[in-house]
Amino acid sequence: MATIIDGKAVSLAIKDQLKKDIAEYKTSTGKDISLAVVLIGDDPASKVYVNNKATACEYVGITSYTYRLPQETTQEQAEDLVSSLVNDEKITGILVQLPFPKHLDENKILKLIPANKDVDGFSDENIGKLLQGKKTVVSCTPFGVMELLKHYNYDLTGKNAVVIGRSNIVGKPMTALLINANATVTVCHSKTKNLAEIARTADVLIVAIGRPKFVTEDMVKDGAVVIDVGINRVDGKLVGDVDFDTVSKKASMITPVPGGVGPMTIAMLMKNTFIAGTER
User: Fold this and answer.
1) Phi and psi dihedrals of 51, rounded to 5?
2) Is residue 270 part of a domain?
3) pTM above 0.85?
4) Residue 165, exposed/middle/buried by CB under 10 A (0-12, 13-18, 19+)?
5) Which domain holds residue 98?
6) Which of 48, 59, 173, 258 could form a disulfide with 142 if both were Cys (CB 3.0 to 4.6 A apart)?
7) Which pLDDT value is given to residue 280?
8) Res 45: pLDDT
9) Catalytic pick from 15, 97, 221, 241?
10) Which of 15, 53, 221, 271 is catalytic?
11) Is 32 a catalytic residue?
């Protein structure tokens, strides 16, 4: 039976360390660290995430500002708010909660956030630095995956890593981080042929596609490390992209859903906000 990777415990350890680091920073510099979160529309999941972020900010000592705009907000109104936050010196980090209402152009709004206030790691500059292996703010979920592997003393050097999913938020930055950690990486997606065969070559299998229990026992090599980034609601319960019950019998380590990667995403957002706030 696999070791269950405890994202709740690791995320709490990270937040506890951040709480100390932030208190020391404030005492030594007299400066504040702050996060402005913009929520547009009435997506229920987004409201939960935003509340969780505010709670985490309070815990670690980051000043939190939440800006809630209605569903019918215009492009101009959204851009005006984000621009005002960019120019506000008391705001050291900005996050716009996705998804947006469909009538808004999210790319135009995201591009307004400069690299030094981009706590999501979405800016062209931060993505470019990541691809070059330079120190930068990295998308929170992939960053959290790397911290989990580090906490469990898993050395990626020379390992075969397979990433299923190529999104800009998870799959692509995850791939870059794995390459930077000296893994040999294969990326699979909806057009991949022989996906199951490729998945079976993985020493580390990372799944982020939003399809409940897509990865089954026959797709996993004995002793593989399996990281499930998926969060899907099925019959009122949260399940991942991996069939946990069967795959956990074959893997050496596996993340549960919930309680695996999810808590790490918010912990790494706090870490990114600290990085952005202290390196300005």
Assistant:
1) -65, -40
2) no
3) yes
4) buried
5) 30-114
6) 173
7) 56
8) 85
9) 97
10) 53
11) no
- Residues 256 and 144 placed together within one structural domain of the fold: yes
97 is annotated as an active-site residue: yes
Give mean pLDDT in consecutive 10-residue pieces for the chain, a chain of 280 residues: 96 98 97 97 90 96 97 97 97 95 95 97 95 95 98 98 96 98 97 98 97 98 98 92 97 97 97 90
**pLDDT, tens digit (0-9, with 9 covering 90-100), for 219-266:** 999 999 999 999 999 998 999 999 999 999 999 999 999 999 999 999
Question: In the annotation, is 132 catalytic?
Answer: no
Is 202 domain-assigned? Answer: yes
**Any domain includes 276:** no
Residue 9 lies in a domain: no
179 and 95 within one domain: no
Number of domains composing the chain: 2
**64 and 146 both lie in a single domain:** no
Describe the strand order of the beta sheet including 63-69 as a list of residue ranges.
Answer: 63-69, 34-40, 93-96
> Tokens 């932030």 belong to which residue?
22
Choosing from 6, 118, 120, 243, the catalytic residue is 120
- CATH number for the domain spanning 55: value is 3.40.50.10860
